[in-house]
Design goal:
Strand content: 15-25%
Order of helices and strands: HEEEHEHEEEH
CATH superfamily: Glutaredoxin
CATH class: Alpha Beta
Number of strands: 7
Strand order of the largest sheet: 2-1-5-4-3-6-7
Number of helices: 4
Structural class: alpha/beta
Number of domains: 1
Length: about 200
């Protein structure tokens, strides 16, 4: 029994490391959990929840302008009147790679032709060539945007917090749902929420 518990704990730790920005730099500390040292608060950091979010449901989504991989610029506040989903991602995140085909199949392909819906993957601090290759290897066709220095990400979560995470924004620009990592039940709730908002 203890052996199975230990194996499960190691597996969970591996997932968290794979989705933490420091893991791509060879860091050995496991990040992303509640009470983790990476979330210790300083005066310079905004207050975050246990998942590293500095925004919450009901907040106005922080505005930003991003550049998509095709060179087009998009400003979030210009999308008012539409349901918007942001997916924070990166090529080195194993859970992102697991989740993205589900986002493609269950969300993007169902709603891509709806003029009232926008989905953007925001790639954390990687060059254009890497992001293009990432889209190709994951098979996603939804728009991906560049986020140099993770500056857009830092408007929504602690800069050192992990990914994947999704932010669902209503037509008024308010956050209605936040997700972290890929959990089937939570993802199903996200899909149902988007469906209901677009009816």
């Amino acid at each position: 029994m203890m052996k199975r518990f230990f194996i499960a704990a190691v597996a969970i730790a591996a997932v968290l490391v794979s989705c933490n920005p420091d893991s791509k730099k060879g860091a050995t500390a496991v990040g992303g959990g509640a009470g983790s040292a990476e979330f210790s608060q300083t005066k310079a950091q905004p207050e975050a929840d246990s998942l590293g979010n500095i925004v919450k449901v009901g907040d106005m989504a922080p505005d930003f302008t991003c550049t998509l991989t095709d060179g087009k610029q998009v400003t979030l506040s210009a999308l008012r009147g539409k349901v918007v989903m942001l997916q924070f991602t990166a090529s080195w995140c194993g859970v992102c790679r697991k989740e993205m085909p589900f986002i493609e199949k269950d969300i993007w392909l169902r709603h891509k032709d709806n003029p009232n819906f926008v989905l953007m993957g925001i790639d954390r601090d990687e060059p254009l060539e890497t992001v293009l290759k990432f889209a190709e290897t994951t098979g996603v066709t939804y728009p991906l945007a560049l986020d140099p220095g993770a500056d857009i990400f830092a408007k929504y979560a602690l800069r050192e917090a992990g990914i994947t995470r999704n932010v669902l924004i209503d037509k008024e620009g308010k956050i209605v749902m936040l997700t972290r990592l890929y959990k089937e039940d939570e993802f199903a709730q996200l899909v149902a929420k988007i469906d209901s908002m677009l009816q």
